[in-house]
Design a protein that fits this description.
The complex is a heterodimer of chains A (170) and B (432). In chain A, 75% of the residues lie in helices and 0% in strands. With 170 residues, chain A is mainly alpha-helical. Among the domains of chain A are: 1-81, Four Helix Bundle (Hemerythrin (Met), subunit A) (Up-down Bundle), CATH 1.20.120; 126-159. Chain A is extended and about 70 Å long. In chain B, helix 9 (193-204) packs antiparallel against helix 10 and helix 10 (208-239) runs antiparallel to helix 12 (261-274). Chain B contains 16 helices and four strands. In chain B, strand 3 (346-348) and strand 4 form a beta hairpin. By secondary structure, chain B is mainly alpha-helical. Chain B has a domain at 83-97 and 145-422. Chain B is globular and about 75 Å long. The chains are: A mainly alpha (170), B mainly alpha (432).
């Protein structure tokens, strides 16, 4: 059962990733990207970590895909994309990807991952939270600082003094 | 001679009925019975009263009214019943239909109108059924340059997402479709899908008003998701769990609205914004942009979107009840099932009918469902009420409300919860 689910999820994830690259329509491409991200959430569910899966759905499908979709809808496609049909580059790219995947796959297969057997139960998300607040607190603080810095930078960039809002009276 | 069918002959009528019966029997024997036999290999049949329930036994028992209850009870424990009927889709759709009718009637009374009146003689009670029949029989018009696959798929996905949301709401102890350990996070993940569907359907209709409405809906939903999530963190901090059933069970003594009123108010306002209801109905502002992102929908597509909207309304109201009002908890006022019917059966003069399998539902479950429905209907009433009272606000006021005021208040709520937790009043190991 798990194998069938795994296969179906893999097909969905990889297929929609290829579709996201190859689709001519940007909207359909971003929908396919959502399929990829949702498939990864499915992998997390298979790996007994629903907490991560739900965050994957909420953050990647719910927010980042929406941002991509929104941007795509507001952009005129002809202005930023020129249609370049270059068969040679495409085949070289595919070959490069295959080489890379085979190399990575062989490394992972040789690393002894196939012989790992574990009977430990799935990690509770409460333990993850406790670890974040105790052992990994510097990483948490660092992430918070980076996020704050990026938000502040975005606000500074977006700020404009020359625009007067006439309608606003409050 | 009849006027409607001048060539009517009774013998022809009987012959056509016999024809139909003959063909049905033939098709059933040739296709139906083999299909049943083949599917029986793959279905796990339930065991009732120590007997394996084959279809033939089930038919025998169904023919006897006093023996059907065990079959119905075993059907009620299946996932199909839970998803389609009781805590899931059917129950929610029933409440949603009631909501639509109550909304129209109540709004009319608030505005000194009559509202639905003629359909069904008594206060227009069949108006909803008439509207449904009209929507089903209407033609579905698709705009000429619309993106057809997305345009067709969006309403269906909308209803499916709303139904998935409904599936997470616990109605009574043990009566929930999906009792997941990270239920609240699943709610957040599902809420995140609504803006995508809205903007996709708005874009796919290739029309100006839907697109403006869709952009507004996207702004509104995405910016109000943040105070929504933050306002619920107080409850999670105090209960220490994300499972909705456990959150309800933690409120057996007092509901969380007593200690977290600010969070409840923020959550209620964000519900109004997520549901696109007045005063936040900018995405479908009918006086500005026709009907917003619903403009190009017609026929049953529109009906599906309406169904999804009201399922969402029920689910949000149910979530409010579960998180802040104590869900199914309440005083036990449902009368117990009379014992003598279980032991002696129903005595009607000389006849005594013993019905095995009674009672069908436990007293706790019925009491819980009753309290849940009462509270949910109350919350739905308060969600409907602003429609008759408030005007629509501007989008810049809406966004400043969401980003400045509600998020700030949500943090105040979180600090209240943390204060109560660290003061040792509430939470795991607290005084109360």
């Amino acid at each position: 059962m798990a194998d069938a689910t795994f296969l179906a999820l893999s097909v969905i994830t990889i297929g929609s990733a290829i579709a996201a690259l190859e689709m001519r329509s940007l909207i359909y491409g971003s929908i396919a990207l959502m399929g990829t991200l949702g498939g990864i959430a499915g992998f997390f569910l298979l790996l007994d970590s629903p907490f991560v899966a739900m965050f994957q759905l909420a953050v990647y499908v719910g927010s980042i895909a929406v941002l991509i979709l929104f941007t795509v809808m507001l952009v005129k496609r002809e202005l930023i994309f020129k249609k370049i049909e270059d068969k040679r580059r495409k085949f070289v790219g595919i070959a490069l990807m295959l080489v890379f995947m085979i190399a990575l796959g062989s490394i992972i297969m040789d690393s002894g991952i196939k012989s790992i057997t574990t009977t430990e139960p799935a990690v509770d998300f409460r333990n993850i939270g406790a670890d974040f607040l105790t052992y990994y607190w510097p990483a948490l603080i660092l992430m918070a600082l980076i996020l704050t810095g990026s938000v502040t930078g975005a606000l500074v960039l977006a700020r404009r003094e020359d625009v007067e809002d006439e309608q606003r009276t409050d | 001679m009849s006027v409607i069918a001048p060539n009517f002959k009774f013998s022809e009528f009987v012959k056509s009925i016999l024809d139909n019966v003959f063909w049905m029997l033939l098709i059933f024997v040739l296709i139906g019975i083999p299909a049943v036999m083949i599917s029986l290999f793959y279905i796990d049949l339930p065991v009732i009263n120590g007997e394996l329930l084959t279809p033939f036994l089930a038919l025998t028992w169904l023919a006897d009214p006093s023996r059907t209850l065990p079959i119905l009870k075993s059907f009620m424990t299946t996932d199909l019943f839970r998803i389609a009927a009781f805590p899931g889709f059917g129950f929610a759709a029933l409440l949603a239909a009631g909501t639509i009718f109550i909304e129209r009637k109540m709004l009319a009374k608030l505005q000194l109108r009559v509202g639905p009146f003629y359909c069904g003689k008594v206060e227009g009670i069949l108006q909803l059924m008439g509207d449904g029949l009209k929507l089903i029989s209407k033609e579905i018009i698709i705009p000429a340059k619309a993106d057809k696959p997305i345009f067709w798929a969006a309403p269906v996905i909308f209803v499916a997402t709303a139904a998935a949301f409904v599936a997470l709401i616990p109605v009574a102890p043990g009566w929930v479709v999906a009792d997941v350990d990270v239920g609240l996070l699943a709610v957040f993940a599902i809420i995140g899908f609504f803006p995508i569907i809205t903007i996709l359907s708005a874009w796919s209709s290739n029309s100006k008003f839907p697109f403006i409405g869709g952009i507004r809906a996207l702004h509104q939903m995405v910016s109000f998701e943040i105070p929504l999530i933050l306002s619920l963190l107080g409850v999670v901090i105090l209960t220490g769990t994300l499972n909705l059933s456990e959150i309800v069970a933690s409120q057996s003594n007092f509901p969380w609205i007593i200690f977290l009123p600010i969070g409840a108010i923020i959550f209620f306002i964000t519900i109004l914004a997520e549901l696109e209801r007045i005063p936040f109905d900018l995405p479908e502002a009918e006086s500005e942009i026709v009907a917003g992102w619903l403009t190009e929908f017609s026929g049953m597509i529109y009906g599906l979107v309406q169904l999804g909207t009201y399922l969402k309304l029920y689910a949000f109201a149910g979530l409010f009840v579960v998180l802040f009002l104590g869900g199914w908890t309440g005083p036990m006022i449902w009368p117990p099932f009379p014992e003598e019917i279980i032991t002696n059966g129903i005595v009607m003069g000389p006849i005594t009918m013993k019905i095995p399998g009674l009672p069908v539902f436990s007293q706790e479950m019925l009491n819980g469902v009753m309290w849940f429905v009462i509270k949910t209907v109350g919350v739905i009433f308060f969600i409907l009420l602003p429609r008759g009272v408030f005007p629509r606000i501007r989008i810049d006021m809406l966004l400043s409300l969401g980003w400045y005021k509600l998020i700030g208040l949500a943090f105040v709520n979180i600090f209240i919860a943390l204060g109560l937790l660290y003061a040792g009043v509430l939470g795991p190991g607290g005084l109360l």
